[in-house]
Specification:
By secondary structure, this protein is of the alpha/beta class. The chain folds into two domains: 10-256, Type I PLP-dependent aspartate aminotransferase-like (Major domain) (Aspartate Aminotransferase, domain 2), CATH 3.40.640; 259-391, Aspartate Aminotransferase, domain 1. It has 14 helices and twelve strands. The chain has a seven-stranded mixed beta sheet, with helices on both faces. Strands 8-9-12-11-10 form a five-stranded mixed beta sheet. Helix 7 links the parallel strand 4 (150-156) and strand 5 (181-185). The protein is globular, with a radius of gyration of 21 Å. The structure holds pyridoxal-5'-phosphate. Pyridoxal-5'-phosphate (PLP) binds next to helix 4.
């Protein structure tokens, strides 16, 4: 890229960052579907393996398409470095297992993504890593959870699916005070609505499968943050193999070109959906970070540019009415994903969080009739009409 003194806006960078063009002069980035890269000199190959020169060797380590995607994510999040993986869970896994060892302690917010919850409670202990789950907004519990061997704080905000908001400024201070690595899953907000690094996060992880791809086509994960930590995650991953495929990286890099416009429309549609649901006689309650009655509305306003694309609500009448609602939908998809162009309705208690016990679910606010809507890019009145007719 040509040198320029003026700093471009990250939204522009997400469109304009591009790995160097080939001699063909192609306008858009080609796909580097190659497992390995060649060398003309044995000496160069030796130097590349010795990390003395920065060259691609093998796509499990690095690949130009993956690099381009990571560069864009770093600019969007305001991070020094990054690493990308095949799925969001692979990056959640790598960001924890690469940095913690036997005898270390992790403090994790209890309302995390279902698989993260399972990993932390069922798998971490097998490797001698202790974890304490704490209620997202019980600040005393966070303080009490700190032990001499505590090393990392892991949290999500907004949480999935309850949309609780954790004060990032507070979390940043807490982590710094206790000398803990702050690792934030920013999947629900994306860097365009919220930048955890500005509040002191050391690492930001994403399931790129969601809003970043935004069209329900590929899976991916990415972590960005402090260079030294990313280097450790890179070494761990380079040797354990969760690398992002060049094809998926190409799709995700292209998707970042439209993240800003997509997200604006998702958020506009979502708040309209939330307001309509709130008025409906068959709806018990609605939760959306930018509705005034959200319990952490003020914090959401402070740290987020908009409320995001997820709305959750409880259908009156519990589990049976919830099922009836889902079965009555004509347009919205019943599927496990979120962050798609197509609106999606899901039932966390019987799907993403089904591995938790009923009590564990209630502890994190997943009631039997809770419905999560990922509001898509369809014409908003069509989304609202479908919800209304299904609610009866
Ligand atoms: C989906 C999701 C993940 C896991 O990502 P995958 O790409 O499905 O592996 C992690 N965190 C959050 C908040 C998610 O929504």
């Amino acid at each position: 890229m040509s040198e320029t003194n003026k700093k471009l806006n990250p939204v522009t960078e997400a469109i304009r960052i591009q790995i160097p063009r080939t001699e063909e002069g192609e306008h858009s980035t080609p796909m580097y579907l190659t497992s390995s890269f060649t060398f003309n000199e044995a000496e160069n190959m030796r130097a590349a393996f010795a990390d003395e020169i920065d060259e691609n060797i093998y796509s499990r380590f690095t690949n130009p398409n993956v690099d381009e995607f990571i560069q864009k994510m770093c600019v969007l999040e305001g991070a020094e470095a990054g690493y990308a993986t095949a799925t969001g869970m692979a990056v959640v896994f790598a960001s924890i297992f690469a940095l913690l060892k036997q005898g270390d302690h992790l403090i994790c917010c209890s309302s995390v993504f279902g698989s993260t919850h399972t990993m932390v409670t069922k798998f971490l202990p097998r490797y001698g890593i202790e974890a304490t789950l704490v209620d997202a907004n019980d600040k005393d519990a966070w303080e009490k959870a700190v032990k001499p061997n505590s090393k990392m704080v892991y949290l999500e905000t907004p949480t999935n699916p309850q949309l609780e908001i954790i004060d990032l400024e507070w979390a940043g201070n807490f982590a710094q005070q206790h000398n803990l690595i702050l690792n934030v899953d920013n999947c629900f907000a994306t860097p365009l609505l919220q930048k955890p690094i500005e509040y002191g996060a050391d690492l930001v992880v994403h399931s790129a499968t969601k809003w970043i791809d935004g069209q329900g086509r590929v899976l991916g994960g990415v972590v960005v943050g402090r260079k030294d930590l990313i280097h450790d995650i890179y070494l761990f991953s380079r040797n354990t193999g969760p690398s992002l495929s060049p094809f998926n990286a190409w799709v995700l890099s292209k998707s970042l070109e439209t993240l800003d416009v997509r997200l604006q429309r998702h958020c506009e549609n979502a708040i309209k959906v939330a307001e309509v649901l709130k008025q409906h006689k068959n709806v018990e309650w609605v939760k959306y970070p930018f509705l005034k009655d959200h319990p952490q509305h003020a914090i959401a306003k402070k740290q987020m540019k908009a409320g995001g694309g997820i709305v959750c609500f409880e259908v009156k009448g519990g589990i049976e009415s919830g099922r009836k609602f889902l079965n009555s939908l004509k347009m919205l998809s019943m599927t496990a994903n979120l962050g798609d162009t197509r609106s999606i309705a899901s039932h966390p208690a019987s799907t993403t969080h089904s591995k938790l016990t009923e009590q564990e679910r209630l502890n994190v606010g997943i009631t039997p009739g809770l419905i999560r809507i990922s509001v898509g890019l369809e014409y908003v009145d069509d989304i609202i009409d479908d919800l209304n007719q299904a609610l009866g």
